[in-house]
Amino acid sequence: MISIDNLSVEFAAKPLFSGVSYVINDRDRIALVGKNGAGKSTMLKIIAGLQQPTGGTVSVPRDATVGYLPQVMVLADGHTVREEAEKAFANIHEMQQRLDQLNQQMISRTDYESEAYMQLVDDYTHLNERFQMMDGLNYQGQLERTLQGLGFRREDFDRPTSEFSGGWRMRIELAKLLLQNHDVLLLDEPTNHLDIESIQWLEQFLCQRAGAVVLVSHDRAFVNNATNRTLEISCGRIYDYKVKYDEYVGLRAERREQQLRAYENQQKEIADIKAFIDRFRYQATKAIQVQSRIKQLEKIVPIEIDEVDNSALHLRFECSQRSGDYPVICDEVGKTYDQVVFQGVNLTIKRGEKVAFVGRNGEGKSTMVKCILGEIPFDGSLKVGHNVQIGYFAQNQAQLLDGELTVFDTIDRVARGDVRFKIRDILGAFMFGGEASDKKVKVLSGGERTRLAMIKLLLEPVNFLVLDEPTNHLDMRSKDILKEAVRQFTGTVIVVSHDRDFLDGLVERVYEFGGGKVREHLGGIYDWIAHTAAQQAAQTLSTPAAATPATSAPKAETPAVSGLTWEEQKARAKQQKKLQKALKDAEEQVAILEGAIAILEEKMATEEGCADTTLYEKHASLKRQLEAAEAEWETAYEAVENTESLTTT
User: What distance in Å separates the CA atoms of residue 495 and residue 497, rounded to the nearest whole number?
Assistant: First the structure.
């Protein structure tokens, strides 16, 4: 589908990658991996046509569409969530307008036997076929399913986008991208603002409904579930693995072992050649052999070994003095702003326990953390145990660092006692060794800022860690090291996170926030996911199979019809008018198609038409469209009948 040939990119005469060639095929789901700064985001921008390479070509078929989701984008306000998402269907609206124009022409014209009229029928047939393939009449259903899959409730659809945080508005942009049905999707960290349920929905969407996908993500579970091919950028080249990420890790280790052996053999060969040259350089009898060895040395192509970050990131949270047996006890705790965030919360966290707070964004996880920290007032009783010393890592901790300070000065300001003499050693252990410690915070990447914020937390004597989205902006290796440090911490831990791989094997209890309640689940994160899936399956089975949304909604309203308010009557009338228009449009569609088929059949009955195979193909296509149109008419007719019977009840 997309061909990348001999691609090279340079920044300030320094090559990022060169001679890169590969092909993105239809239904490929590719994870683009490599260390930070390897050029993953640059590669996506080049494929999307937003950045030009230094050399090489990117060939995209003329009829193929490419959708790109960057990590950060400028978000516009001024519309509701539904209106903003409907922008994804601008082409469908244009197609519908064109179909209406062709309809009007076919109705108003009477030159049925002319070539121009047959061309008009042909244009209408092809355009309507495309419209049907794109499910043009049912895009509202697609829109609602996608928004709900990404975490929006129905009551959110008509709210202005300005009422939502940046993370929620990024979800709207992701919804628009998915609804546009691009042939190729380029996604740069798409899970950054999603909760676990939305991430699982996105995985399913990409596997079942998307075409080709190329994504960059540090969420190991998401990458493993959503991709089937791994492209690694290393040493400025591309290595292509036709496997998922976890399998790639093993194959990559094997490849590096082979490279190391080949490198060692080559170095031995080079050393032997140089030793021969040095030994016999000035002996006339060996001049020919020496020159031969020199030429042999010049022809050797050095073997490069894949980049591996060997600097050690040693994370260790020192537990301070022992706390009481129960660091946190909540008794009927509640919090209300304009609406109830949660109420009647009862939970007890024991010393040494590691628990997770999970749930959709905005359900109160961070609010509960602030209650525990005593930062906001609340209802009920919340007791923090004896001798509890809390170390808190907030979601925006990395952004709160002073950008004008250097890395060294940032730590120097919080260090106390003998630690001040070991600052450079500590920074070196966190990959800020040498000149990196003199960088200003404002030039650091998101991952580097997160690591720096972690150092500040390490210097605090604590026995209770509260980590709110600690893995944001961390690569997979750094997350593994942080996870191991938290696992070895002997104090108490609360982790607020949507990263399933990070939570797996780390926590033994999960607290689910949702619907104003907090529910306790014993076991790890995948135990909770399995329990949630079982509950949803049970609810689905308990719903009568015959009760579809179209039929169940009117039945639910029937008892209250006689007591409808004016606003409800107005809404009912508006709905009925909409259904009647849909019925009228369906009737016109059937009439037009029947007329076109009749004209075509007359032409097929002639001697010339009988021999024209294209007429038979058009006839079959029109017949299929007529069947679909008649089905739509029946659906519209039943809907009108149902609403009219409800109105007269």
Answer: 6
